[in-house]
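Tokens as discussed.
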């Protein structure tokens, strides 16, 4: 527990040293607010919450993948991971400590999105449920990518294409039935389904997101062990 707390505090401090990551949690809600107030609410042909759901899906499905991968890769590049492994920190302690802070920050950002969207109570609960679990999936996926990277540059080179694929596939699926069938296994597709139609049941989307989390966690653990003292 002490190791998790120490890593959590370290990440909380490091985010203020990395303005690019900090902006991620601020800029997308701001864009959603501006576009909602200036465009959606003044145009009857545009759904009032279109920009909120769009920016929220991008945040949970794309932005956090690159942010998390960069954070992990930075620890590897600075040799911080080597010292943590020598100190006996397990993969799950490291993941919870590192990812826990970003999950907390992502939850706060999701709440802001919900407030901007002015959803009904049940809609808000569904929105937050899929956003928080989707955020967790993105963080763990990003952590696995970061663990497989030698440095931040490598993490960006690998993380960006993955983020684009998982982020934009649901958009393509909207126009292509074949892609939609394949995209159904992605957590980002389930985020897209729920935030765009609150009438759907949460059971299946949450189950698929949970399956994604299990797979990503397994990949992270393998990468952590494979990295060993080379980190």
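Sequence:
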């Amino acid at each position: 527990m002490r190791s998790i707390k120490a890593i959590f505090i370290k990440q909380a401090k490091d985010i203020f040293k990395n303005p690019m990551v900090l902006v991620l949690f601020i800029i997308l809600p701001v864009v959603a607010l501006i576009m909602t107030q200036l465009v959606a609410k003044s145009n009857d042909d545009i759904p009032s919450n279109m920009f909120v759901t769009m920016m929220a899906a991008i945040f949970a499905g794309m932005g956090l993948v690159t942010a998390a991968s960069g954070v992990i890769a930075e620890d590897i590049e600075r040799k911080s991971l080597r010292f943590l492994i020598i100190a006996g920190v397990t993969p799950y302690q490291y993941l919870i400590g590192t990812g826990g802070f970003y999950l907390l920050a992502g939850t706060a950002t999701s709440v802001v999105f919900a407030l901007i969207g002015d959803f009904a109570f049940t809609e808000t609960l569904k929105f937050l449920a899929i956003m928080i679990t989707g955020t967790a999936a993105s963080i763990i996926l990003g952590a696995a990518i970061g663990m497989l990277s030698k440095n931040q540059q490598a993490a960006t080179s690998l993380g960006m294409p993955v983020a684009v694929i998982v982020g934009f596939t649901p958009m393509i699926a909207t126009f292509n039935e074949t892609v939609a069938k394949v995209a159904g296994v992605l957590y980002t597709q389930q985020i897209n389904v729920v935030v765009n139609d609150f009438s759907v049941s949460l059971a299946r989307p949450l189950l698929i997101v949970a399956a994604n989390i299990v797979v990503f966690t397994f990949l992270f653990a393998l990468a952590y062990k494979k990295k060993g003292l080379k980190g």
